[in-house]
């Protein structure tokens, strides 16, 4: 046993906006890793729909309310030697801090694994975070930590408005937002102070319009640090990263700025003493080589799951091993089984993330996006072009493309479309596409109004250009459309022909999808891990076996009425099939889930759950048996 360690792992509790299935994924990986290391593991989590609370995950499971009283009772009974609190999101961190402040950890001699509580406070406590960044010489927006409304008034006298209100120790930006007027600032600050467990908010001069990027960093206790992944929001600062379309790796900054931010990220995690995963958010000036540090999450975060699945690098698993005292340069990368975990992942494809919102179920709700997260889940997709990745992620999120934007936008009043753009709603990119299609605006006008990088507006223009020039009789035209993410149905809609005609023409030209590996190393080293994404470029890397096999369709993104319980069902379906001697194939596009862990099924495909995309996988695998009933309504619909 690992020094006879008895480890208590704190989960994230119920799914809420800003804290969803990604912590079931990270917590499950942590429990498995601890047990592999010989630790006795007990788990506290109140969510019965998770794989984490399955009896097979830990030695002892406590499905209890995530409260100080319940946690104390468990510690008193089980007497753990160590506590792991950095894989359960904000809920776990806040509970660990409460245990320490109440003297429970000292009384029962429980040590924290990985990142210390002092480091957590440095990242989560807004005043401490500000002071630590200033000590490091890292640039911050003009700001002040407040605990009363009177302090807000003093800040507004010198800085004016607009302001950003960021409550301390809350998840998904809860209680915060952007205030355009002093009255809005007072209301937001009052709400934020109430939402914060320590009644504290950071009030900062607005930098809305700056580019927002994230760096996912890993560090061990011996100060070896790597950048696992960097990600870029299409929306500038002002929209929560969980509500923005995201591309990885970053597409629109210079190498000089990238190196500057890489250095800053390494210095920050080193100075804070983070052990494990850390997420750092930066704001970049629209035209100058200047940046600000927005936020540091000294734990496995919501973005960590996306970074893990986008690169194939299992952040939570390796973060747990680092918490146990291992070194990055002594850990084998579980994907390649050849390179060390200190080898930075490399991507030879583009990953896109599209958020999913509940607004269609609540028509009267406010669709405007801001610093407080509203998305319930997310769709992930990979492709060789930005356009391909974006279109795949769009359809994976269930967004109507008829052929490039929803049907109602074809007939909507121009003013209505502009309102979607100016108010910054979840339909903003689609409305921009519709306006560009109508020739109602130009790239320059859109960039000036939205502060979205020209590159991303060019993506929309490229899609429109392909749509306008589509020619079913031209192999080049058809191949170009497929390589930019168009489905057969979209092409049929554009040309107003039956979809069968498009499929037949594709077959005549020999245009077929290729499935390639996500291997963390851009094929520089061989990888035995069958983790695939589909594209229309290059050669396929799938060699179907002759074994009896079954494909399981996963549940896709989390929505109201379709949550993590279907991930639980899908994983158990795979386990049951494997026990029965079947080769298993999983198709799912939700980066937050356990079912998209490459170690769950024999073959994993990150593809949209649509009929066309699923059929392509079945053809590549030569699989004729499919289970759809474990993935909820999404899986049933796709069949």
Keywords for this structure?
6-stranded mixed β-sheet, D-amino Acid Aminotransferase, Chain A, domain 1, Dna Ligase, domain 1, 17% strand, Rossmann fold, alpha/beta
Account of the 3D structure:
This protein is α/β, with parallel strands linked by helices and 639 residues long. It folds into 5 domains: 6-113, Rossmann fold (3-Layer(aba) Sandwich); 142-205, ATP-grasp fold, A domain (Dna Ligase, domain 1, 2-Layer Sandwich), CATH 3.30.1490.20; 211-345, ATP-grasp fold, B domain (D-amino Acid Aminotransferase, Chain A, domain 1); 357-367 and 383-509, Carbamoyl-phosphate synthetase, large subunit oligomerisation domain (Carbamoyl Phosphate Synthetase, Chain A, domain 4), CATH 1.10.1030; 514-638, 3-Layer(aba) Sandwich (Rossmann fold). The chain is 38% helix and 17% strand. The strands form 4 sheets. It has a 7-stranded antiparallel β-sheet, with helices on both faces. A 6-stranded mixed β-sheet has the order 17-18-21-20-19-22, sandwiched between helices. Helix 1 (22-36) packs across helix 10 (302-311) and helix 15 crosses helix 17 (454-469).
